[in-house]
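ok new one. same drill as before - structure tokens go in, u give me an amino acid for every spot. 271 of them this time. try not to just spam alanines like last time pls lmao
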């Protein structure tokens, strides 16, 4: 449905906000490669950006294995172009993008993530997916790593998430709102995020902002029907630390006697 909708929305996406042309690197999710981000990169190229894939094949290596290479790639783009580089990351690619920005903030203009569970890594189906993709046992992150990844990054950041994700707990994708950080909800699935026209509009809108002129995303009346209506009873803007407290019992408990309860807890968080 998202792919069909993307074709239908192409004329409207062509009118999306356009900003200063600058380098944009798009990182794929767990198990995926640059082919998975072809729609994102195609739209951004049409809007005039210098768009690059991550160029590292499938995203299946151990955590942080690609961080150094990506930081080097981004730093070189910054040096060659004379412009800061924007990073767009889908799922695990967004977590890598955030860590690149944390490592070399002077080279990064902004980070946009799609369905990236940086606020609580364990609140996902990553264990089963990792074993399926690699044949190896998934080693859960240490508490120190979980805490580090959840901390705000020193550049403007937008987290695009969906409550119908189905792969990661949507609450695990939420930024601590404040400063130049925000969360934007869309109606799709985890697999559909990279082909979902409203998500692509948000990416274009964020990239169009001039440096130092950051403002939160607010859909115009023309595109507002694309997005979920604001509901004052929703807790999307609960501080991320509070969100992590909701997720942590299901995500990090490892006692054998708690496996069934933990699995049920994660399923409930994914819905």
């Amino acid at each position: 449905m998202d792919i069909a909708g993307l074709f239908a929305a192409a004329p409207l996406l062509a009118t999306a906000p356009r900003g200063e042309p600058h380098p944009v690197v798009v990182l794929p999710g767990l198990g995926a490669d640059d082919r998975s981000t072809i729609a994102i990169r195609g739209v951004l190229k049409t809007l005039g950006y210098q768009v690059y894939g991550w160029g590292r094949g499938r995203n299946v290596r151990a955590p942080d294995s690609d961080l150094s290479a990506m930081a080097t790639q981004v730093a070189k783009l910054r040096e060659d172009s004379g412009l800061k580089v924007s990073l767009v990351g889908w799922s695990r690619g967004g977590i890598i993008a955030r860590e690149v920005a944390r490592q070399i903030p002077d080279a990064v203009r902004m980070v946009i993530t799609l369905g990236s569970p940086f606020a609580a890594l364990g609140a996902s189906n990553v264990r089963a997916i990792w074993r399926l993709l690699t044949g190896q046992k998934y080693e859960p992150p240490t508490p120190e790593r979980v805490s580090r990844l959840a901390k705000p990054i020193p550049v403007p950041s937008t987290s695009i998430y969906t409550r119908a994700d189905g792969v990661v707990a949507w609450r695990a994708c939420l930024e601590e709102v404040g400063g130049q950080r925000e969360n934007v909800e869309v109606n799709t699935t985890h697999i559909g995020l990279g082909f979902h026209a409203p998500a692509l509009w948000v990416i274009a809108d964020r990239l169009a902002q001039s440096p130092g002129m950051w403002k939160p995303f607010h859909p115009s009346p023309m595109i507002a029907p694309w997005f979920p209506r604001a509901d004052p009873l929703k807790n999307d803007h609960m501080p991320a630390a509070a969100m992590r407290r909701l997720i942590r019992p299901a995500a990090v408990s490892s006692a054998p006697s708690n496996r069934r309860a933990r699995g049920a807890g994660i399923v409930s968080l994914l819905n």
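Strands lie at 23-27, 50-53, 85-90, 108-114, 157-161, 181-185. and btw The longest strand covers residues 108-114.
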